[in-house]
Write a structure and sequence with these properties.
The structure is a single chain. The protein has helices at residues 2-12, 21-34, 41-61, 114-122, 128-146, 154-169, 212-219, and strands at 149-152, 181-185, 223-228, 238-239, 242-243. It is mainly alpha-helical. The chain folds into 2 domains: 1-90, no CATH class; 106-243, Amidase signature (AS) domain (Amidase signature (AS) enzymes, Alpha-Beta Complex), CATH 3.90.1300. A 3-stranded mixed beta sheet has the order 1-3-2, sandwiched between helices. Helix 1 crosses helix 3 (41-61), helix 2 packs across helix 3 (41-61) and helix 5 (128-146) packs antiparallel against helix 6 (154-169). The two termini are 26 Å apart.
Amino acid sequence: MRKIALLFAISICLNGFGQTHKDSLRFLQDVAHLYDLNFTEAETDSLQGSILQAKTIYQRMHRELPKNDLAFPFAFNPAPYGFSIPTKQQKLVWDLPLNVSAPKDKNELAFYTVTQLASLIKNKKITSVQLTTFFLDRLKKWGDTLECVITLTEDLAMQQAKAADAELKKGIYRGPLHGIPYGLKDLFAVKGYKTTWGTRPYMNQVIDEDSYVYTQLKNAGAVLCAKLSLGSLAFDNRWFGGFTRN
């Protein structure tokens, strides 16, 4: 919260920036000290772009202010006039491709679409365990290079993949995400695993509950292989382990 307050405060003071880049960085560092915060020159340089963006946003917000006699709306309704929102869920029909073959070179699976993979699983041309193992191996091989993996959820993934295969053998098919491996941004909580939000102060945080997004994906039969990197606090593209590219 202090950093957010700092962002707002600096945005207001931006007109006081010096003429040189160095002066601007020193100004930001001086204002940060007022909030008992210390940034290196590199951190301040990264922060400056966001501050200037905030300045532009504030200027745009105050360009045209509503008139004082304009009443506030009682509710926000984005629907066009006369449009009625359906109240009943219609049956979903997923048109999965029928003639999908497993590739001779399994590495080609990395470039299959979700619907193609779903077709392979539904028609039992590949198992969820096989597909999950394939993607876990790729995450292990390329995760550090791409700086995209915060936590590998291998045990959970294999457990969910085996369950998906067992259900399919019993004739239970949950839909196109059944048995499909995926990665979840580390913004979403999963019981038993860290939820870091991509920021160093929370890199060991464990939230003992499942997020709604994860719960919905789990109920659809999807297989969680990893919690993926995101910019610190879902902002920008820097996280405590590097540069997020996904």
